[in-house]
Amino acid sequence: MLATQLALEPMRRTGGGAIVNVASTAGLGLAPYRSPEYAAAKAGLIRFTSTLASLRERFGVRVNCVVPDWILTARAEQELAGMTPDERAAAPEPLGLDALTDALVRLVRDDELAGRVVVLRGGEPPRLLAPDEAR
User: Fold this and answer.
1) Of 40, 99, 107, whose CA–CA distance to 73 is shortest?
2) Between the ranges 78-92, 104-118, 119-133, where is the mean pLDDT highest?
3) How much is the average pLDDT of 17-32?
4) Is 5 part of a structural domain of the chain?
5) Which CATH number do you get for residue 87?
6) Band of residue 134 on the pLDDT scale cut at 50, 70, 90
7) Is the pLDDT of residue 1 over 90?
8) Does 11 map to a domain?
């Protein structure tokens, strides 16, 4: 939030721009989550982003959010390696880093999107949530 607040005035002065927040699917839905403070922070970032759609008209700044599931990083690979076969089978399919970067670039380039949220889950195409949807 602070980074967004600090960037708004300089961006407005230079003609606008795009901010893309990165949250997590931990912030979606109502199911229990093993780290409630993490889930709450990500839910807050998603909601914060969605409330800023009007900044496009006011300041020429578009704020959107990418909400990835598990990204296949070195850390994720270590976690997968440490799981039992049953745990691995229950884990979501990790996303390649390119899925995240492709979604980020799309949100930076698409001048029509503001206050929008894109959900990325392994094995599924990116899903742009409707403005009133948070699942």
Assistant:
1) 99
2) 104-118
3) 95
4) no
5) 3.40.50.720
6) low
7) no
8) no
Tell me if residue 38 is catalytic: yes
Residue 54, C-beta contacts closer than 8 angstroms, at least 6 positions apart? 114, 115
Residue 101 lies inside a defined structural domain of this protein = yes
Give the pLDDT confidence score for residue 133 in this predicted structure: 65
Domain count, the chain: 1
Chain-wide mean pLDDT for the chain?
A: 93
Q: 18 to each of 12, 27, 71, 115, 117, how far by Cα in Å?
A: 11, 22, 23, 11, 14
Q: Of 1, 9, 38, 54, which is the active-site residue?
A: 38
Residue-number span of the structural domain to which 121 is assigned: 29-128
